[in-house]
Amino acid sequence: MSQKTINDLQDLQYFGEYGGVNPSVSDSSTYTFLSAKTMFDTFEGNTEGCYLYSRHSSPSNLYLGEALAALEGTESANVTASGMGAITAVILQLCNAGDHIISSRTIYGGTYAFLKNFLVKFGIKTTFLDITDLDAVAAAITAKTKMIYCESVSNPLLEVADISALSRISRKNEIPLVVDNTFSPLSVTPAKLGADIVVHSLTKFINGTSDCVAGVVCGTTELCLSLKDVNNGAGMLLGSTLDSLRGASILKNMRTLHIRIKKHSENAMFLAKNFEQDGLPIVYPGLSSHPGHMIMEDQMNTEYGYGGIMTIDVGSLKNANALMELMQERKLGYLAVSLGFYKTLFSAPGSSTSSEIPMEEQQAMGLGDGLIRFSIGLDDDIERTYYSMKKCLMDLKILNDTAVNA
Ligand SMILES: *Cc1c(COP(=O)(O)O)cnc(C)c1O
Q: pLDDT category, 4, cuts 50, 70, 90?
C-alpha cells in the first residue's frame, strides 16, 4: 500500500469566508430559510446544501467528516461527540432486540462494557472470542449475528486482527465487519482490507492534543445517511453531536497527523527494540517476536510504521505503579489514560481503562496487573528518553527482576 491515503486527505482543501486558508466555522445551531417550502424539504432530508439544525449536520462537521472519509478511504463519514458515541450508534443502528454480535475479547473497556452489560437491556448477546482464531469466529456465526467487531490493533494487548481474513468470513455470511482503528490511523486502512465500517475515537491520535473528546463512523453513504435519519437514525436520535468549534479544531490538527504518526512509530520502535534487547517482556507489533507481526506487515501502510503504543509487563501492580510514578517525576511522561499526545502517557490498564473487564477474564486474555500501556510521545531525542527510562527501571530494580536474559 502507498501514500495514496494521505494524498487524498491533503488534496481536500476548503477555504473560509474572505479567502481564509481554513474553512469558516459554522457557529450556529439553527439556520434560516427564505421560504417555508425549502424548510419543509430540508426537514424531509431532500435539499442539498441546506442546513436545518446542527444536531443533524453542520458545515464544520461535514468538512471534518469528508477529511476522515478520505483518511479511511470510505464513501462517507459522520463525526460524533466521542468515540463511544460512534461505536454505540453503529451497534444500535445495525442490531435489533434479540440479535447477536461477535466481538474480539480484547477491546476497549468501554466498548466491552457496552456489549456485555448495556445491550442486555435489548436482549442483544455478544460472543467474545480470540479474534485471531478465525475458525472460532466462523463457527460462532448464527442466523442472528449482525456484525463482527474488532480493533485493528487491540486495546490494550496490541493483538493484530487479520482484517482481510475476517472480511472474507463476514462477506461470505453477509454481515458487516466493524473495525475500531483508533490505535492505528494511517498505519492500517481497514476499509481497503475489506472492513465495511471503520470507527475511531478522534480523542486519541487523530486529534493528538488531548484537549477534546470526539469520534467518527466511516462507511457507505447509505450507512451515514441512515445514522442521521430524523425518524430512526441512532446518530440523530441518541444525540452525540460534536460541537462545530471542536469539529473545526480537530480538522486543523489532522493536517499534521502523518508527521505525528511517523514520529510516534519511530520512537516506539526505537524503545521497543532496545528494551527487548535488555530482556524486558515488551509487546510491540513492530517486533518480530510479536504474534501478529507478519499480519501487521502484510496489512500496514509501511511508511507510517507500527504505531505509537507498546506495553511492558513489569510483573506486579506495585512495580507498575512505582515505575509510572518515577517516570512522571523525572518528566518522562504523564501517568494518565488516553493516547496519542505529544508527551508519553502511561497507565496500568488492568486497574484503569480495562477495569470494566472482570479479573478472571483479564487473566484469561493475558492482561496481567503489572502490564503498563505506553503511548509513546513525540520526543525529539528518543535515545535520551531510552536511557532515562532504563535508569528508572534499574533504580527500581525492575530491569533485573523481570529481565529474562539481561
Ligand atoms: C478511547 C477509545 C475509545 C472510546 O473513545 P472516547 O472518545 O473516549 O469515547 C474507543 N476505542 C478505543 C480503541 C479507544 O482507545
A: low
Q: How far is CA 144 from the centre of its chain?
A: 27
CATH architecture of the domain with range 257-405: Alpha-Beta Complex (3.90)
Predicted local confidence at residue 1, as pLDDT: 46
- Residue nearest to ligand 1 atom 4, measured at CA: 83
Task: Give the Cβ contact number of residue 338 at 10 Å.
Answer: 15
Class of domain 2-255: alpha beta
Q: Are 183 and 151 in contact (CB under 8 A)?
A: yes
| 322-326: long-range contacts, CB 8 A cutoff, minimum separation 24 | 322/396, 322/398, 323/372, 323/392, 323/393, 323/396, 323/398, 324/348, 324/372, 326/392, 326/395, 326/396
pLDDT tens digit sequence for 299-340? 999 999 999 999 999 999 999 999 999 999 999 999 999 999
Distance from Cα 91 to the centre of ligand 1, integer Å: 15
pTM: predicted TM-score of the whole model, two decimal places: 0.95
H-assigned helices in 12-75: 36-43, 59-72
Residue ranges per domain, the chain?
2-255, 257-405
Domain 2-255 identical in fold to domain 257-405: no
Beta-sheet strands, E only, within 157-291 = 177-180, 197-201, 215-219, 282-283
Ligand 1 contacts (CB < 6 A) are 82-84, 108, 110-111, 151, 155, 180, 182-183, 201, 203-204, 213, 215
Reported as a single tens digit per residue, the pLDDT across 204-255 is 999 999 999 999 999 999 999 999 998 999 999 999 999 999 999 999 999 9
Q: Strands, DSSP E only, in 81-131?
A: 100-104, 125-129
CA of 213 to the centre of ligand 1 (A): 9
Q: Judge whether 67 and 247 are in contact, CB under 8 Å.
A: no
Whose cell is 500496514? That residue is: 300
Beta partners for 79?
A: 216
- CA-based nearest residue to 286, from 380, 158, 403, 127: 158
Q: 177 has which bridge partners?
A: 148
Query: Is residue 97 over pLDDT 80?
Result: yes
